[in-house]
Amino acid sequence: MNRLNPLFTLAALIAVSFTLAGCPKKPTVKAGDTGSSAVTQTSDSGANTGRGTGADSNAVRPLSDTRGAMPSGEGELGATIRFEYDSSEIKAEYQPIIASEAKQLAGNRHLQLRLEGNTDERGSAEYNIALGERRAQAVKKALMLLGANDSQLATVSYGEERPVSDGHDESAWAQNRRVDLVVTAR
Amino acid sequence: MPIFFSAHYTWCSVPMSKTHQRRLLALWLLLGSAFSAHAQLTVDITKGNTSPIPIAVVPFAGDGLPVDVAQVVDADLARSGRLSPLPRASMPQRPNQATQVDFLQWKLVKTDYLTIGRVRPDGAGFVVEVELHNVLTGERVLGVAMNSTGTGLRLAAHRIADLIYEKIIGVPGAFATRIAYVAVEGPVAARRWRLVVADSDGENPVTIVDSKEPIMSPVWSPDGTKLAYVSFEGRVSSVFVQSIQTGVRERVSGRAGINGAPAWSPDGHRLALALSQPDGNVDVFVKDLNGDGPPLRVTDDPAIDTEPCFSMDGQSLYFTSDRAGRPQIYQIRLAAGERPKRLTFEGSYNARPRISPDGKTLAVVTQDQGAYRIARVDVATGQSVILTTGRLDESPAFAPNGQTVIYSAREKGRGVLASVAIDSGVVTRIMAPSGDIRDPAWSPRL
Fold first, then answer.
1. Which of B196, B235, B236 to mutate to test the interface with A (most CBs of A within 10 A)?
2. Are B342 and B335 within 8 A, CB to CB?
3. Pairing state of beta strands B436-442 and B427-431?
4. May I ask the CATH class of domain A76-185?
5. Domain map of chain A by residue range?
6. For B15-34, how does the pLDDT look when each residue is reduced to its tens digit (9 = 90+)?
7. Rounded to two decimals, what is the model's pTM?
8. CA B80 and chain centroid, separation
9. What ipTM does the predicted assembly reach?
């Protein structure tokens, strides 16, 4: 299922040599008490793991268009860019961070970032997924303008699902409207 | 209780201004002891003015039963907001045969309908016999006998409530149904997401997916056997379809980028999705679940197009788009070369459409005086009516009888589910003892 490219393979080897914590866990599936239902425990690897009591695991078939998971399970937070309400414009105060990250990416083609777009909790959840992606893409474009390669930058949007502050006021929302630059390989 | 579910969820209905968390028993002690407490059930929101019809559900005859069937029926009817059950303490008599009923006594306590019943063992299960009497005419308007398995008494009770509701209101009830929702627990750095399926009254919650990454947007297949949902496991988004019964699941969309906002076609053969292009632009697609072909692109616009929902005839999609600057609801026919038509013009933010079972009304998230609330929009005229009064209400979904919209709300920092009766405005709420619950989806009838 994983579409292995050389960078991923290298990154995976590096990740494994540094830490075991990043290893994808074996999927575990436990049945509920009724015998007729099952809990699907998801794994960090993103594999298909669902399986019911007595069900044929082959019924879960990987599709050809599925994308492999990042080889590193976690990654390290490199930087955070924050945004105004309903905006994906990168404010001037963040330009030095963008420039610095882009320079590192241009200088080390093994360096890879996952750009995680996030929104505040207001409004519709799936619409916020699209807004978060817009922010992640804005950061990606800014980094590429300054020398980063497309292949070094993955984007994901968590919308309102992964706040850093669980408050429910403007100061919490301002913290949560952000793109996290997460190092996945170096 | 299921092994992996220690939390006990209870429905309760209280004014929006008060946050109570009560177990069902406590609620019922309250309802049984004070009529004023009972009145709280119907005064949450004043929108609409339907007066609930007074009814009494007398405890059913039967010894040593695992479920108080009459109590389940009573709670269902109360939650609808259309019927107002008499507290047990106010009942003048407790008949369980028609011959024992003294209608005059029930007229004196101003009860319009009287429900009596009997539960008796039958092999490994039970037979439940129920009669509904019109107190004013003395006429028996409903008489049914229902078989139940040993563990199915609650379901039987919900079916009885459905029949009583239909007899009196003229529309089938939606009590013998389930809800799916996402439970989120733990501090922001160590969150856990669970996809849970429970009875429509919040009982029998069962976790069907447990993840350290977000789970979103569950939707029931039209036959009620499967859920489609979004999972971020592996730190990428995917859409899965999972069997409730077996847990077997399939990743139906796992492209690079966004895979989100699943919505079933009425025939259950297709899934509408929001998918992103390599540049991050999100458009609406339709995937044939029986074929292996790529999803068919429905919208093509540099703006955000997401949150599709099939029309009841399966011929078009409603969706959210910010192509005019701010999110609004559009409709597009599923035929080559069709252009979307904008449906909402009231307010600067309308998103996440869900169609009513009769195909005439959309439930949407709308911005209202800086707050996000649930509104219903008339598909034909575009006119909208705001239904809720929260500040962060979202994710509306219709009950299968179209009488109620369930949605996510936030009260005092807690994520709760709430449902609002379309006609009466009565709000009912479900809350977990800890953590947030959100993203509700209402199953078809069981």
1. B235
2. no
3. unpaired
4. alpha beta
5. 6-59, 76-185
6. 333 333 333 333 333 333 33
7. 0.81
8. 11
9. 0.84
